[in-house]
Amino acid sequence: MTEKSINSIAVAMSGGVDSTVSAAMLQEDHVVHGFFMDLGLPDREKHISRVQKVAQTLGIELHVIDLADNFQKNVVDYFCRSYASGITPNPCVICNPTIKCGHLLQAVRERGIEKIATGHYARIKQSPQGRHLFKGIDPQKDQSYFLCGLTQEQLGHITFPLGELTKTKVYEMARELGFRHSPGTESQDICFLANQRVGDFLKKRLKSSAGPIVTAAGETLGLHKGIFHYTIGQRKGLGICDATPYYVIGISAEKNQVIVGKESNLWQNTMLVRPLNWIRGSIPEKSVRMQVKIRYRHRAAQARVARCGELLEALFDEPQRAVTPGQFAVFYEGDEVLGGGEIIPQTE
Description:
Layout: E1 8-12, H1 17-26, E2 31-38, H2 44-58, E3 61-66, H3 68-84, H4 91-110, E4 116-117, E5 122-127, E6 130-135, H5 152-155, E7 158-159, H6 167-176, H7 198-203, E8 211-215, E9 220-224, E10 247-252, E11 257-261, E12 267-278, E13 288-293, E14 301-308, E15 311-321, E16 328-333, E17 336-344
Parallel strand pairs: 1-2, 1-4, 2-3, 4-7, 8-11
Antiparallel strand pairs: 5-6, 6-17, 8-9, 10-11, 12-15, 12-17, 13-14, 13-16, 14-15, 16-17
Helix pairs in contact: 1-6, 3-4
């Protein structure tokens, strides 16, 4: 497969319902080639076998691409470093531009295919001003948040066949094709955890040392079992009794401290963001109103956003709960993704 063909398209296949239906849809107008990312995960042979069965059923040629080293360096190591430094990462936001739409797309193009499809619930539109990324029409499955790191160049080589469909419709189409996918067979959000808890995964890879749980005023209330076991907004597992609950409101890797406070301490009006990528236009120099999501399942909040030196500052119309350093803020205008970046501690 060395000659380019406008009728050829690659599909990133996992064996799940979304990539399966995407591949079947594209077969109507394209010669479809399946690509499986071998990330060196547990049960890799089982996963490869599952994808091979799907590809055989659809009559699709399947390519297994070894991306284990790249995935380890770019995603898993980033995940571990982040927790070690006291912040809560989002590996999916990093994986999409660097692995799936980065190294995998490169492997696809090296084989003479210029377009790759994924099973994300999102939409891409073209205008004279460039390419635009939009939410998928199913509000329960929209995955545009995880795609905020994609560049204009990458968007030119990607398509999302499911962007105009609901998840219910996708399952219906899978059944019509003779597949019996169920929600239990879908990919995990953090694939490399392999059903482990984050803390259990990290304690095999990071040095864990107990330290003080303190209030913002410096009063010691207890001991933590390693900072990577905690995240902003966490209530359970602190081992502190009081008339009203304590929550994690901060983490200091430098002091090996978990900082706690009350519910009221979790709310804040402002947020600083280190830009990762800006898809439409340029990063605003002056204050511009837009909607901001501070985590995937967060309901986008209205804010005024402007450049603050090398950072972006968001001033929310209403205080937001548990703004978490390491997570990603994604900026929207209606259904369109404008850009995104990593939330940083206010003290940085």
